[in-house]
Design brief:
By secondary structure, the protein is α+β, with helices and mostly antiparallel strands. Among the domains are: about 50 residues; about 120 residues, no CATH class. The protein is built from six helices and 17 strands. Strands 4-3-15-14 form a four-stranded mixed beta sheet. The longest helix is centred in the first third of the chain and has 15 residues. About 5% of the residues have low confidence. GO terms for molecular function: catalytic activity; molybdenum ion binding; pyridoxal phosphate binding. Pfam families: MOSC, MOSC_N. InterPro entries: MoCF_Sase_C, MOCOS_middle. This is Molybdenum cofactor sulfurase. It comes from Helodon gibsoni.
Length: about 300
């Protein structure tokens, strides 16, 4: 009757009698029927990967499409590994390890283990800013006063006497770095509500080698990044990917959704924009200004 209609949606109830002869398998069958027929579920991460793997890309891979325009939108560096990005829209110096100051610091717990967003999501709220003129790294966190630490790594005798060398592991590699002191350690512990945190800076005297970067006997050095000196992200490819994932909550079916926020999730260094998505899959190299970059690893 009319009492079964709520907000123009038909509703009702099902009565199930359970008695002496009812077995658990009978109840399991009813439960499975309700879950399979009436419960709306999100795609699990495993199913999502399977869907994307089997999805046929409409962009032709052979021959490679002609790229009419490539624009470098911004440069992102992550001074502290797993913290927020410092975004640059002008220019930024590069070193033999990659972008200057990118992933040069890391936060470790009381046991000396590096912490990342995999086990501490609030790291994304630590926002770094680099004052290139004064050579300071400023850290901010919601509802806390900012703190500054020097960017210059002095190797004077006084610095060596006062700095404490520590060790940790990043992606299986043993890393040596200098402890940045008690003041910033207490600030980080207060911000993340964890005791015993320390901030380490990668030592310039200890080299970390890029495992996939050997070319003609030359070993490429790398900072505290996971795999490569630079990570390139095409914002048009991210837009394409977002349109294929039905349960991506941030995606609205319009051009007004937060594309920049989705791009930020990939934590890229070089954010580019092309007229066609996925064209970067066929690239073997890229030249930005006077710097030649070679593609070493492609993430599918």
């Amino acid at each position: 009757g009319s009492n079964d209609i709520i907000d123009c949606v038909p509703t009702g109830s099902v009565r199930i009698s359970v008695g002496y002869m009812t077995e658990k398998t009978n109840l399991d069958t009813v439960y499975d029927m309700i879950v399979n027929c009436y419960v709306r579920k999100k795609i699990s991460p495993l199913d999502r990967r399977e869907v994307l793997t089997n999805y046929k890309v409409d962009v032709p891979l052979r021959p490679a499409p002609i790229v009419k325009q490539v624009r470098l939108q911004k440069i992102c560096i992550y001074p502290i590994k797993s913290a927020a990005a410092f975004k640059i829209t002008t220019q930024w110096p590069v070193t033999y390890k990659g972008l200057k100051y990118d992933r040069e610091w890391v936060i470790v717990n009381g046991n000396g283990v590096a912490i990342t967003q995999k086990n501490e999501q609030k790291l994304c709220l630590i926002r770094p800013q680099i004052d290139a003129n004064k050579n300071f790294l400023r850290l901010s966190f919601p509802y806390m006063s900012d703190i500054q630490i020097p960017c210059t790594e002095s190797h004077t005798e006084n610095f060596i006497k006062t700095a404490t060398m520590c060790q940790t592991k990043v992606c299986g590699d043993r890393i040596e770095g200098y402890d940045c002191g008690d003041e910033v350690a207490e600030w980080l512990s207060d911000a993340l509500c964890k005791t015993g945190l320390r901030l380490l800076r990668q030592s310039a005297d200890v080299k970390r080698i890029f495992k996939n970067g050997h070319q003609k006997g030359v070993a490429k050095e790398i900072s505290l990044a996971n795999q490569a000196q630079y990570l390139l992200i095409n914002s048009q490819s991210v837009r394409w990917l977002a349109s294929k994932v039905d349960d991506w909550e941030d995606v609205q079916y319009s051009d007004e959704f937060d594309l920049e926020g989705v791009v930020d999730r990939f934590r890229g260094n070089l954010i580019i924009e092309t007229d066609t998505p996925l064209v970067e899959n066929d690239w073997t190299g890229l030249k930005i200004g006077g710097i030649d970059l070679k593609v070493s690893v492609k993430k599918e």
